[in-house]
Amino acid sequence: METAGPRDKDNAQDGAPGPSAFQTFARRRGAARGLAFLLLLALAAYFAPLLANNEPLFIRYEGVARFTAFRGLFPLNRLLKRDAVSLRLVEDPDWLLNQRTRPDPKVSSVLLPPVPFSPLQQRLDDVNTPPSWRTGHYFGCDDSGRDVLSRVLHGAKVSLLVGLLAVGLSGLLGVAVGAAAGYAGGWLDLLIVSRLIEVMACFPTFFLILAAVAVMDPKYLNIWTITVVIAATSWTGMARYARAEFMRMKGADFVAAAKALGASPLRLALRHILPNAMTPLLVNATFDVAGAVLMEAAISFLGVGVQPPDPSWGNILSLVTRYWDEWWLGLFPGAAIFLTVLSYNLVGEGVRDALDPRAEE
Amino acid sequence: MAFLPGLEAEAPEDGGTFTRALPADAVTLNPVIANDMVSYLVYKWIYDPLVDVDQDMNPVGVLAESWENSPDNTTTTFHLRKGVTWHDGKPFTADDVLFTYEACMDPAVDAINKRPSFEAVAKVERMNDFTVKVTWKEPYAPGLMAWNLHIMPRHVYAYAKGRSQDFNKGSADVPPVGTGPFRFAEWKRGERIVLKANPRYFGGRPHLDTMVFKIIPQSQTQLAAYQTGQLDLTAISTEQWRQLKADQALLKGATVFEYYGRQFMYLAWNMDGSNPFFRDRRVRQAMTYATNRQGIVDKVLDGHGITCSGPFYPGSWESNPAIKPYPYDPARAAALLDAAGWKDRKGDGVREKDGKPLAFECLVPAEVDQFSRFLEIFQQDLRRIGVAMAIRKVEWSVFLDRTQRHQFQAYLSGWSLGDDPDPYGLLHSSQAKLLPDGMGTGQNDVSYMSPEVDRLIETEQRTFDRAARQRAFWRIHELVAQDQPHTYLFMGSQIVAVRSKFQNVRVSRAGYGLFTWYPSVKEWWVPKGLR
Question: Which residue positions in chain A have pLDDT lower than 70?
Answer without folding.
Answer: 1-18, 218, 357-361
